[in-house]
Design a protein that fits this description.
single chain, mainly alpha, 498 residues
């Protein structure tokens, strides 16, 4: 079993099934498209389980390595491998894809095959990002993820979907072009190799490192997204269909954080240290300022979108304080945020499917007609607010602990998210769920069906298990975090210039 190319299977099974789903054609074959998509998503998740089971938490470096020649003339290889950090993101992505396919089972009635295929292909491409150990391969997968999401927002989105999809595409594409320039520069200075492992060992002057860091920053900061290049995200979330919002928040934002971990920090460690204050400043602005922006939102999706920006500020803060607690907290926050944001967007989707409105003012008293839904929504709202015992607390607590070691004021400002997060999340919950039935539309609402219950129950178990027993997650990433930190602490400035 372990002799199989498991990483390649995790990438190409969803893509292959995506092509098969597309081949079902028109909506007359919609049921076949749904069934094929579910099989493809489930097999894609199933193949990641032996990867997790066979992964050694003690070994450093990369595991399940595959290397095949791709473009021999330029020494570009199909080079795959994972460490504990990429393993967790691989699992999260494959797990989320199954839920998204089930979530769209009845909701999507037009162009069903194309909708399902877009998510399967997107899932495979994002797995490719998490597994790539060749710089050009990483870039190809990283950029290719834009295409399915562009289609998902542009075809199945809301009234302003064309504007939102174009804004999303242009922001992320233009941000990534400088990263390609940096990779080409590294190819020449590393002796004609695109291997990330060769990049890690290439000595670079501080000036070169800073320029490369800024080039990578443009690509990854937009993806996270960091303030002030975050403005595309609320528009994209508001216009995207529910499944698009779930994948965008749960997985695609993590590509930016992963890029900082896999490329920026180990390739240019001196620049990472030199610009750490700049990164911490932007992260704290996201945590505090965007948290306040979320308070004044009237659209549920937009509120959760701004909440995502604020919570992702914890990720970049944890990475750039350069200690084990901070980095472990950052990775835990990425995984936890995948569960929480996915669950919250699915909850909004449940309401939107019934009322066709995301405005908070259109609701009130939902608990009277949807008590089971209200209970799930309460759990996810409390998790988003960082309630101890849920996954939302673990990552934030670790980052605050790490920040306290670096600087008291970093920790103090970061901790304000526990106040602002509770304020905007619980205020939204109160206005939507509690009180008397607001209008006749709310009075006619029906509680969640079995399909919706199953999705929300799975996510509820995930956030609770991760909250009370984070050990399986921290244990897997422990060695990878130490490897990255030890590498980042070693200067790459040529000896003659030190």
């Amino acid at each position: 079993m372990y002799g199989l190319p498991l990483l390649s299977l995790a990438i190409w099974i969803p893509i292959a099934f995506g092509v098969l789903v597309l081949a079902t054609g028109s909506d007359r074959n919609a049921h076949a498209a749904r069934v094929l998509a579910l099989i493809g998503a489930f097999l894609g998740f199933l193949v990641t389980l032996p990867i997790y089971a066979g992964f050694s938490t003690e070994l450093g470096g990369f595991q399940y390595v595959q290397k095949l020649e791709w473009i021999g003339h330029f020494n570009v290889n199909y080079h795959l491998g994972i460490d504990g950090i990429s393993l967790l993101l691989l699992l999260l992505n494959s797990f989320t894809t199954v839920l998204v396919v089930i979530a769209g089972w009845e909701v999507i009635q037009q162009r069903v095959a194309q909708y399902m295929a877009s998510f399967l292909i997107l899932s495979g491409l994002m797995n490719g990002v998490f597994c790539a150990l060749d710089g050009l391969l990483f870039y190809v997968f990283f950029e290719a993820t834009l295409i399915p999401m562009f289609i998902i927002i542009g075809v199945w989105g809301g009234p302003r979907r064309v504007y939102a999809s174009l804004k999303f595409f242009l922001y992320t594409l233009l941000g990534s072009l400088l990263a390609l320039v940096a990779l080409i520069y590294l190819y020449f200075v590393s002796g004609g190799s695109f291997s990330l492992l060769d990049f890690y060992d290439t000595p670079l002057t501080l000036t070169a490192q800073i320029l490369i860091f800024l080039a990578f920053f443009m690509a990854f900061a937009v993806k996270v997204p960091m303030w002030p290049v975050h403005t595309w995200l609320p528009d994209a979330h508001v216009e995207a269909p529910t499944g698009g919002s779930v994948v965008l928040a749960a997985i695609m934002l993590k590509l930016g954080g992963y890029g900082f971990i896999r490329l920026s920090m180990p390739i240019v460690p001196d620049a990472s240290h030199a610009l750490a204050g700049f990164m911490i400043f932007l992260s704290l602005v996201a945590v505090v300022y965007i948290g306040l922006v979320a308070l004044v939102q009237t659209d549920m999706k937009k509120l959760i979108a701004y909440s995502s920006i604020s919570h992702m500020g914890f990720v970049t803060l944890g990475l750039f304080i350069f200690n084990p607690q901070g980095m472990q907290g950052a990775v835990i926050q990425m995984i936890s945020h995948g569960f929480i944001s996915g669950a919250l967007f699915l909850c909004v989707g449940v309401l939107y499917d019934r009322m066709h409105s995301r405005n908070i003012a259109d609701y009130g008293g939902v608990v009277n007609t949807m008590p089971v839904f209200a209970a799930f929504f309460m759990l996810f709202a409390m998790t988003n607010a960082g309630l101890p015992g849920t996954s939302g607390f673990v990552g934030e607590f670790l980052v605050i602990m790490g920040a306290m070691q670096a600087n008291f004021w970093y920790a103090f400002l970061a901790a304000t998210t526990l106040i602002f997060g509770a304020a905007y999340t619980l205020w939204m919950y109160k206005r939507v769920i509690f009180g008397a039935v607001a209008n006749s539309h709310v009075a006619q609402l029906k509680d969640i069906n079995l399909r919706e219950f199953a999705i929300l129950a799975i996510l509820a178990v995930a956030v609770l298990v991760m909250g009370v027993w984070p050990h399986p997650f921290t244990d897997v990433m422990h060695t990878a975090v130490n490897d990255i930190l030890s590498h980042v602490m070693h200067s790459k400035i040529p000896v003659a210039q030190q």
